[in-house]
Amino acid sequence: MKFKNIEKFKEIFQSVQNATILISHIGNWELFCQWAPLYIPKLNVVILYTPIKNKILNSILLQYRQRFGAILVSTKSTLDLFRIQKTKNVCINLFAIDQNPGDPYHQHWLKFFEQEVPVISGAEKFAKSQKQKAYFLYVTQSDTYELELIEIPYDSTINYDLTQRQFQILEKNILENSSLWLLSHNRFKYLKKES
To answer: Does residue 191 lie in a domain region?
Structure first.
């Protein structure tokens, strides 16, 4: 695994401002989540995750994912995410954006590969509420995984502007390396109900 522009993380650290990093299941997203504290030790790597119902398996995965210093925060205790922003030095907050939302018919829907799909917009809500810059982690593969951090300028006055932009970049990333995208999340599982 190598970074094309690791200096972007240095810029985030030097800005003394927390940032939102949008990641997807292209390649092995676990690699970046776990290894990021080794590559960018000055930043606190905070990962939002959904707990697994099996408590023993959840505990094992937490230990595995946090072994190099990442901080995992459950989606069920998002107040901890806000607390960490205030109590730690500069944080990058990682949100996986390409999963199906838990309650699809009460979510925002948008076009993704010419299909209307429900999307998780929590990363946008969080970034806006904390006035954070947002970045997309673009993943390609040649001999190794190559990671590039791309800033996504967004208009905080327009609802779902960041969400729309992140899915456009995600679509481009998938088209470039479609064999790397984890399809098990079944992004096309739900159909939009007629009103």
So the answer is: no
Structural domains of the chain, count: 1
Cβ proximity of 185 and 120 under 8 Å:
no
Strand ranges, E, within 50-176: 71-74, 91-96, 108-112, 115-119, 133-141, 145-151
- What sign does the CA torsion over 174, 177, 91, 55 have? positive
Per the structure, the complete domain to which residue 50 belongs is given by 2-185
Query: What one-letter code names the amino acid at 100?
Result: N
User: Which conformational region is residue 53 in: left (phi greater than 0), alpha (psi within -120 to 50 degrees), or beta?
Assistant: alpha
Is residue 27 a part of any domain in this protein?
yes
pLDDT in tens, 38-55: 888 899 999 998 898 999
- Residue 149 near residue 5, CB atoms below 8 Å: yes
Answer whether 0.85 is exceeded by the pTM: yes
The helix (run of H) or strand (run of E) holding residue 54 is none
